[in-house]
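Lab notebook, bench 4. The sequencing result for the construct came back, and we need a structural model before the next group meeting so we can plan mutations. Quick request posted to the team channel:

Model the 3D structure of this chain.
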Amino acid sequence: DIDANDPRAQAVTTWFATLDGCDRVADIGCGSGRFLRLLANQDESRNLIGIEPALECNHQLAPRVEHRTGGLLHLPAADAEFDAAFAVESLEHALVPQTAIAELCRVVRPGGHLLIIDKNALLQPLSEHAPWERWFHPEEVCRWLWRHCDHVQVTPLHDPSHPKKKPTFLAWHGRRKL
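Done. Here's the predicted structure in token form:
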């Protein structure tokens, strides 16, 4: 599970609370479903879908969460199937991140909402990390989102328990073009 005070959890739950009229929400690269558990407790009326390539993770999802097996580059979903979708620390695993963003946008309906949370490349030299991890510059993910979305913005996720620490995570928001 994830602490509800974690800045990533706060960003996801705050975003989710603003999704009026969004009944089908997908977590892309959901892992064991830690964010979906928070959202399931926040609103029981919405349909939550977790998509994860690792089969063993899909069996850990909450009972009311629909689970699908699939990866970022070929999501098991129809065009415009979801009202909203989010991906937390999933993009870093994509071999071709701009293609992953296009695929993420494909499955969200026009006017639907997207949230991507991943690591800030400006802080990568200061961090220990796995050699395969990809960290992102704020403007590069914005550029990829602008191809499919409008109202794109990026915000740093500050950790209130460490106010002087530079934020490791960034949150990109977008609305799928009509």
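The beta strands are 24-28, 47-52, 66-69, 82-88, 108-119, 149-157, 169-176.
Will bring this to the meeting.
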